[in-house]
Amino acid sequence: MSGGAVLALDQGTTGSAALVVSAEGEVLGRAYSEFAQHFPRPGWVEHDAEEIWTVTARVAREAIAAAGVEVAGVGVTNQRETVVVWDPETLEPLRRAIVWQDRRTAALCRVLEEAGYEEMVRRRTGLLLDPYFSGTKLRWIFEDDPDLAARARSGTLAVGTIDSWLVARLTGGAVHATDPTNASRTLLYDLDEGDWNDELLDLMGVPRRILPEIRPSSGDFGVTGGDTLGIEVPIGGVAGDQQAALYGQGCWEAGTGKCTYGTGAFLLFNTGPERVASRHGLLTTAACDAHGGPAFALEGSIFVAGAAIQWLRDGLGILEHAADSEDMARSLDGNDGVYLVPAFVGLGAPHWRPDARGTITGLTRGTTRAHLVRAALEAMAYGTREVVDAMERDAGWRARGLRVDGGAAKNDWLMAFTAGILGVPVRRPEMVETTALGAAGLAGLRTGVWGGPEDFAAAFGSGRTFECEMASVEREALVGGWEAAVRGTLAVVGGS
Ligand code: ADP
Predict the structure, then answer these.
(1) If you ran DSSP here, which 8-state letter would residue 14 be given?
(2) How confident is the model over 246-265, as pLDDT tens digits?
(3) What angle do CA 48, 49, 50 make, to 5 degrees?
(4) Distance between CA 296 and CA 305 in Å, rounded?
């Protein structure tokens, strides 16, 4: 049995989106709004949690009004790692949220690393000691503000990631809860235990009682109050944005994965019930199985993907629109040995070389704008292959295919080329808002909008599949050229 509609709230880094999705897979209503970014000092990034709530509630009401149907449940997906501190009685934020991009705890991370905590942290959390994650942000807050530290000790303060903040506000303070996918980004969560861990809590100075309770991603997160969204319905799904996209793409079983091609590229591969430790520079994180229950994933991030196309357009002015890159790449029969390694901000997974900088190799008098554009697109495919290779080596299996989404996944030439370089099919769904879709799925399963995961998947069609049409000799020659270009890039900054 299925029917009705579900509201998905996608609370991102620069804006909040709300979509009302029907059981048949139609988007009945949608709304989006940006909100303010605060940069109080170099390297610091903050959000006003109250504004996040106000904006999210507003777009939710707009989407519900536009849909004009009854909504059976709410799903929440969110920017991960960002931390909020609030008063559990008044539900007022007690300071600005510290955003995942914020680097203020870099020195603290180095101190913890030098004190020898990295191994324990990695073993328990699957993460690294990096300012990106929530734990050191919370320790920093309590070191910075003795009043908040005292309130943390006495339990008169609540902390959490954005999902738990939204759940608190949506339920009028009745529920303080998060899910494993968000919890697994905090440095406070033991992946094997599936719970907050006391050793980690001590390290980050966070008392357990102020943290949200961890509930299944497709589960019971309370009921929205009539005074918040104007409707009283259950919140049935919560997941961090990348894991929600993985779920929305139908990557529910071991060996299935997705890549989101936006500014950067974010790859997640489901490893099923098995937790795989990476030896190749990837993170291990909590994900969802078909029913929103616990699973694990390997995660790798490429810092610059579509941003290289942006640079060719806005920096060099050799493209008018990002979409023009497709015809320009197609106009050439091959890359003629030109490679662009877009290490503009260093290299991410699997190299982890923050000191690396971009290079273009193989230039001749015959090199044209089209060669540079093609090289920038090809780089996305090679970067994807490096991360997929690392995942295969870590997990000990072969990827069967890759699902794709994000702005640059609209480029058909790039998707076909990626299928060729990976040697497996690449599938792009019809509904590209996979993050919101994942939240809708998790909530819709719980609230009966879909009878089971198959009903949910069937509602959204299959999209377009790009098969591998590249001969293996060509693939190996191209990948060999890329590897030589990366070696050259690393040689410039020393080492390999
Ligand atoms: P984000 O969410 O990171 O802002 P989007 O998913 O909106 O990113 O994707 C935008 C990125 O994709 C930009 O960097 C842009 O250069 C790139 N892009 C958009 N369309 C194309 C295209 N047709 N071919 C290649 N890159 C594209």
Answers:
(1) S
(2) 999 999 999 899 999 988 89
(3) 90
(4) 25
CA of 322 to the centre of ligand 1 (A): 7
pLDDT tens-place string over residues 356-408: 899 999 999 999 999 999 999 999 999 999 999 999 999 888 888 999 998 89
| pTM confidence score | 0.91
Q: How far apart are CA 258 and CA 245, in angstroms?
A: 8
Residue 264: predicted pLDDT: 87
For the stretch 415-446, pLDDT in tens is: 999 999 999 999 999 888 899 999 999 999 99
CB–CB of 278/311 below 8 Å?
Answer: no
496 pLDDT above the threshold of 80? no
Question: Could you read off the pLDDT of 69-115 as tens digits, one per residue?
Answer: 999 999 999 999 999 999 999 999 999 999 998 889 989 999 999 99
235 CA to middle of ligand 1, Å? 32
Using the mean position of ligand 1's atoms as its centre, give its distance from the Cα of residue 282 in Å: 24
List ligand 1's pocket residues with C-beta within 6 A: 262-263, 306-307, 309-310, 322-323, 325-326, 406-408, 410-411
What does the DSSP 8-state code read for residue 197?
-
List of residues 6+ apart from 110 with CB closer than 8 A = none
Angle at 162 between CA 214 and CA 435, to 5 degrees: 90
3-state SS assignment for residue 2: coil
Tell me which of 34, 263, 303 to substitute to probe ligand 1's pocket, judged by most ligand atoms within 8 Å of the beta carbon: 263
Cα dihedral 172, 52, 235, 101 sign: negative
Q: Encode 395-463 in three state secondary structure.
A: HCCCCCCEEEECHHHHCHHHHHHHHHHHCCCEEECCCCCHHHHHHHHHHHHHCCCCCCHHHHHHHCCCC
Atom of ligand 1 nearest to the CA of 305: 14
